[in-house]
Design a protein that fits this description.
The protein is α/β, with parallel strands linked by helices. Helix content is 53%, strand content 11%. The protein folds into 2 domains: 9-276, Spore Coat Polysaccharide Biosynthesis Protein SpsA, Chain A, CATH 3.90.550; 291-410, no CATH class. Strands 3-2-1-4-6-5-7-8 form an 8-stranded mixed sheet, with helices on both faces. Helix 2 (36-50) packs parallel to helix 3 and helix 6 packs parallel to helix 10 (243-259). The protein is globular, with a radius of gyration of 22 Å.
């Protein structure tokens, strides 16, 4: 799988007909017929309006859409907008990461100075997003650009409860949306990432966003965040659709912790990073979330998984989790402090149990559902801005708890670590 080339011969030939491009917008997609033309139109207009002196192009990296006309609609829109572009099917494992690899490779063929990624299910993308993503690279000299969105308080549950907290705690940089979907890169950084031998792993599936962010952090390239306003995409209820994504994102995160141990174990308290653009004042629309399904999933999982959880968690942590169960469905709450310890102890178990890494990830997801339910319970009556303040409070608690993570991580097998402070 390591030897699979990211570009098919026909795709390379089509890219060759474009020649060279200064700027590239890449759109990973899979059965996105309802939205892909809108994303292509915004990208084409953004390139034309905001970078009139540069040659821009669009690359569609499709996962083999067969349930709809995603590729045909994307190609028709590019022709209608008269923008150079290629629609191709990526090679490799099924997932966004393989699509991103294809886009990186296309950027290399085109010798692009900068490239941006846009998810194909976006409903709120505007031409201004192209300036906000590519502008920091072209005009500001940044090499990695992460998004800043206004999102509904129940959106982005993996980000709000796992990745933002963990990456801020680990690497000391406040990248608010480390798996946000929309990113930009210098051509140099894209080529460097594409050359790494990781495309046969879960990075090729859902793990790509966090992998790209962590790699930018450890390479100490110039990073900024850019205001994109409200993000509206095909909403995903965590109780119904996010378990595979959670497992792959967290599996990638824990694997990256092992690979980057020399960086994060010495990183200090977090610092803010540069921000590009104006946030605007538009507010996101609410969408329903099945709170009861989250709760029931957790309680049902307790019946079959509590033994596995007890084998992973420290006695004090497990006892506190069991006390939460005993309070009953109507009021149970996993606090941020307890959740931080749970994640840290699972990360340490992943680290110290090389033969059981996959099992550690699999039994963690019901606890994630419980934490999401707890977050919803806490912010249910709050505004989006008030909920954002809760997210920031959570991240600070994770930072304060980092010494406990280090203690767990550095313990020798069988060695008793200090009691959780």
């Amino acid at each position: 799988m390591n030897d699979v080339k990211p570009l098919r011969s026909i795709t390379r030939e089509l890219i060759g007909r474009i020649g060279k491009a200064d700027l590239l917008v890449g759109i990973p997609c899979f059965n996105n017929a309802s939205t892909v033309a809108h994303v292509v139109a915004a990208a084409a207009k953004g390139l034309r309006e905001h970078f009139p002196g540069s040659r821009g192009a669009i690359i569609i990296a499709d996962g083999g859409s067969t349930l709809d006309d995603t590729r045909e609609l994307a190609l028709a829109e590019m022709k209608a907008r008269e923008v150079p572009g290629v629609v191709g099917i990526y090679r490799g494992l099924p997932g966004k990461g393989s699509a991103v690899r294809m886009i990186f490779a296309a950027a290399g063929e085109l010798e692009a100075k900068a490239l941006a990624l846009l998810d194909a299910d976006l409903r709120s993308v505007r031409p201004l997003w192209i300036e906000r993503l590519l502008g920091p690279v072209v005009k500001g000299g940044y090499e990695f650009v992460a998004p800043l969105y206004r999102r509904y308080k129940f959106d982005g549950t993996i980000t709000n409860n796992v990745t933002y907290n963990m990456l801020r705690c680990l690497f000391g940089k406040r990248v608010r949306q480390p798996i946000g979907g929309e990113f930009a890169f210098s051509g140099r950084l894209a080529a460097e990432l594409e050359a790494l031998p990781i495309w046969h792993t879960d990075v090729a599936r859902f793990g790509i966003d966090i992998w790209m962010t962590v790699n930018a952090l450890i390479r100490e390239v110039r990073i900024c965040q850019t205001h994109l306003g409200v993000k509206v995409h095909d909403a995903k209820d965590p109780a119904a659709s996010l378990e595979p994504m959670f497992r792959q994102v967290v599996g990638t995160l824990f694997a990256l912790m092992e690979e980057t141990e020399a960086y994060w174990t010495v990183a200090g308290r977090s610092a803010a990073i540069d921000v590009w653009g104006d946030p605007g004042d538009e507010q996101p629309e609410a969408f329903p979330i099945d709170f009861q399904r989250l709760v029931e999933h957790f309680y049902l999982s307790w019946q079959t998984l509590h033994g596995a959880w007890k084998s992973i968690l420290r006695t004090e942590t497990f006892d506190e989790l069991e006390a939460c169960i005993d309070t009953g469905r109507d009021i149970f709450l996993i606090s941020t402090d307890l959740w931080a310890r749970i994640l840290f102890e699972f990360a340490a178990a992943y680290h110290h149990r090389p033969a059981a890494k996959q099992q550690v990830i699999e039994v963690l997801s019901p606890l994630y559902f419980a934490r999401v339910a707890s977050f919803i319970r806490r912010v249910g009556e709050k505004s989006n801005d008030e909920a954002e303040a809760v997210v920031e409070e959570q991240a600070r608690i994770f930072e304060i708890r980092k010494p406990y993570l280090l203690d767990l991580w550095n313990a020798k097998p069988g060695e008793k670590t200090a009691t959780a402070p």
